[in-house]
Amino acid sequence: MEVVKTIGRRKSAIARVYVSEGTGKITVNKRDYKEYFTTQNMQYLVEQPLRLLDKLTDYDIKVNLVGGGVFGQAEALRLGISRALVEINPDDKKQLKDQGFMVRDPREVERKKPGQKKARKKFQFSKR
Fold first, then answer.
1. Domain total for the chain?
2. Which residues, 6+ apart, have CB-to-CB distance to 100 below 8 Å?
3. CATH, residue 15
4. pLDDT tens, 93-104?
């Protein structure tokens, strides 16, 4: 099997994922993913698609993560891994889609407008 390349995005985080056959090693920005994502919750988030298909030890995954916060990066990586697994075996798509791993969360930060404090919040109005 050759290297499968996919992209996962969430907010302003972008994960470029490279999946090849291997022993289950996940490397994020040249560091182990457990070192990069320190909390158990985020490590679980990254492993979710692999656990669902019982393929935690089947593939080596190399990831370049850019932008966003740590949680957004973890969700972007989950989407990237899911897309790669579908590219490897299209039969897995239904399982991953049912769990919601194949959907890109489209929510982005709304821009700040001029003459306002934030995107929607206005300056306090003073009558006198």
1. 1
2. none
3. 3.30.230.10
4. 999 999 999 999
